[in-house]
Structures are given as C-alpha cells and as structure tokens.
Q: What sequence folds into this?
C-alpha cells in the first residue's frame, strides 16, 4: 500500500476540490483501489461536480437538513458545532475509487471534494491510500 | 485487479437492482474486496432491500429531503436537476463489499442498487472492481 | 484477505461503538485497507465521535429526516420500520479505513460505530475484512 497524508487549508470554505492532488498521487501506480480518507470527526469526502454551483447547493442542503443551530447535545466551539459532528454519518469521511493504469476512473463531471462545515479548524488532513492489484 | 464497466438502462427508474450483475462478476474470483463505482455526478449506489416497497420509499425520501425544485444554483436540464448533483454527497457513488470464495458477503435482504434521480440520462455506466487478497 | 464476523448485541441502542473490536482485529496485520461491513438491510456504519452527545444528536437527526412514522410502503414489524430500510441509502453499511502497521488511521475523535435504528433485531453481525498491501 502506498499512502500519503495531505494538509489542506480549508479556512471557512465548505467544499474544497482535491481532484488534482488525487490525480497526481495515482499517476504511475497502475491498477488498484484508492481510498480517500479524512481522519476528522467533523468532515466528509464526496464525489460531485465542481464549478457549476453544486458547492453552494450542497452547503445550503446541509444547512437545511442539519441546521447549525443550538439544538445539539454535543456543544463546544461555534454555535451549532454539534451539527458538524453529525455530518460524517451522512457524508462519510471515506470514499474508494478504482484506479486503472494510474488514472482514477472518475467520470467526466466527478471531482473529489472535502466537505468541511467546521470553521473552527482551518487546516485538515486527508489520507490517500492506494492498494495495487 | 479485475474490472468491468456495465452499461445500465435506467430510463426514468429511480432505483435499479444490480445484484445479479455483481454476483455474476464475483463468481469464481476467490476472496477480496469489490468496489461498485458509478462514474457519474448525478447518481449513487446503495445497499437496500428491493421488492418490498423501499424503492418507492427511497425516492419519496430523496424528494422530501432534496426536492427537485427551482432552488439550486446548478441549473441546466430538467427543473430541479441541481438536486441530482447534490444527491451523491449523501448517497455516495461508491460502495465496497467483502467477497468470500467468489460470493459477495451481502446479507439476505441486501441488494446492490443504482440510485439515479436523473431522467435526462437514460443510460448509466457502473464499474465493478475486484481486488483479490 | 483476513476476515471475521462479529456478533454485536445492540438491543434498542441506536449507536454502538465498535472501535475496540476494529482496533483489536487490525493489530499485527501491517499495512492495508480495512472494510467494516454490515450485512443487514436496516443498519449502517459511521465514523463519528462518541461520548460527547453525538450519539443522541445522530438519533435525533435520523428521526427528523427519516421519521419512524406510518408513511412508508415497506410495512412490517414496528411502526415506521420502513424508515429503517431507507436509512442505509444515506448511512451506508460499508466504510473503508486505511491501516498502517496494524493501526487504523482513524483521527483522534473518530470512532467506528454501528447505526441501528431497528429495535426488532437485537443482535447484529458486522464483518471486518482486511486486505494487506
């Protein structure tokens, strides 16, 4: 298994595109499975289109479905931070992508993104792990 | 890694059962991990029971949680198509299933299904990738 | 591939922490990918913090988003059991975690949990599958 851990500066950005880093990591590695894994309890990974409005749509959907209000038992940090802790149950912090000849088999409109509602932690780690086969 | 790409005709069907294709692909392959991966930005993969009403329940739940209304930034295609682009953040386009002696270790009531809210693209590709171990 | 199937007594508990069992299983196994897989159609797996209120917050969020009311086509068992069958489309029954030198690369606040809304089945099976690389 080949693996690296990235440090990503997200700041207050809800959706951060990781596709370039993922593509760079896979290059030259042949066939196998790539797992993109976020070792944080308040973030997720998703495969969505970027650059056409979905980033804002996803942020609005999360706010509608899991509002950052004072309704959570888990309280610390910013108001509604308890919501950030519920998010990974729905937007999981792990996704696996088949890789062929060093190229992730993403569709034309798929990007790998970090979903990070947590404004209290501006820097995030992301592990890329490739198992050749 | 052994891998194939299926072409699935979904038409306007929200949930399409892929269990037979998955089972056929795994047969004879021994032990390993199977990743079912959809290279599209407006579809997901899920493991649910089929044939007892859950297909309709899932479609209704998606419509309730992510309504196909004119509330999205991402606009093109049918009304509410922006919703289809948010779906994969919640119903991910990748799921990994352990395989033993060529048999996916699915439970009795689990089927592998393609979740496709997108009525504008009647045909979908699905990648099956098996990594032996 | 090394694999075991656990039997977990969940009873009426919505969130059950599996981190200890996962950590024990990985010990001594070197590098690879671990898939935690639930072979049931009414349960999911998640990576969340435990012990700080998120268990209750997650249960409340599921009840708000997928209420256990008599609104589902899939009817048998307790009222609203159809909801339990929709849950795995959003909280998937499979998650993959990279393992380094026999240690899952979970973050400090991440626990592996079984999410089981189904009060009719008090015992659940969970498969751990490790593919070395």
A:
């Amino acid at each position: 298994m080949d693996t690296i851990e990235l440090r990503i500066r997200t700041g207050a950005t809800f959706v951060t595109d990781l596709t370039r880093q993922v593509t760079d990591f896979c290059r030259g590695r042949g066939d196998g499975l790539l797992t993109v894994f976020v070792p944080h309890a308040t973030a997720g990974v998703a495969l969505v289109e970027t650059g056409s409005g979905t980033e804002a749509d996803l942020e609005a959907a999360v706010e509608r479905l899991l509002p950052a209000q004072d309704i959570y038992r888990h309280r610390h940090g910013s108001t509604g931070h308890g919501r950030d802790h519920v998010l990974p149950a729905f937007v999981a912090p792990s996704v696996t992508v088949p890789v062929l000849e060093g190229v992730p088999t993403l569709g034309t409109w798929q990007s790998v993104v970090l979903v990070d509602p947590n404004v209290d932690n501006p820097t995030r780690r992301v592990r890329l792990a490739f198992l050749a086969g």
About this structure: Chain A touches chain C through 34 residues (CB under 8 Å). Chain A is about 25% helix and 35% strand. The first helix of chain A runs from residue 19 to 26.
